[in-house]
Amino acid sequence: MNNTTLSKFIKDIPNFPKEGIVFKDISPLLASKEARESMTQSLIAPYKDKNIDVVIGIESRGFLFGMLMADALNAKFVMMRKPGKLPGEIISQEYQLEYGTDTLEIQKDSLSSRDNVLIHDDVLATGGTAAAALSLVEQTGATTVGYSFIIELDFLKGKDLLKNPNVHSILHY
């Protein structure tokens, strides 16, 4: 499937989660086995030969394709979650959203300094979430090889906030 075909599986939901925001719903993409497989292959394509040890999925929609990507890359999968959802010793990073603030956490021992990491989330908007994820990876001593997104909202210029030039997004709005 090409990107034009894959974009037909994204549904616009106006005024969600707040007035004035158009939410990009990936539910139809998840419901199609063929579209899901095509998206997974598109997401991992630039990273197949990058020796990815760990795919990080950002809560919660980043978990969905993050797991599929980890399987396809023969890599470990690690979750970055909202506060209070992970056991053990954690590290946290607060960040700005396009409509507020939030915090991400990761288990401190989930990454090692030898790990090459691919950070995945469903949408790149302002870049705050992805930048917070990068900060958490850096705190563990691991190396971020790149980022992977299903959707990039180009008008918000989130890519500008990220330190790593390897930002790969499938669909652009």
Automatic annotation (TrEMBL):
CDD domains: PRTases_typeI. Its main location: cytoplasm. It catalyses: AMP + diphosphate = 5-phospho-alpha-D-ribose 1-diphosphate + adenine. SUPFAM superfamilies: PRTase-like. Residues 45-146 form the Phosphoribosyltransferase domain. Its EC number is 2.4.2.7. This is Adenine phosphoribosyltransferase.
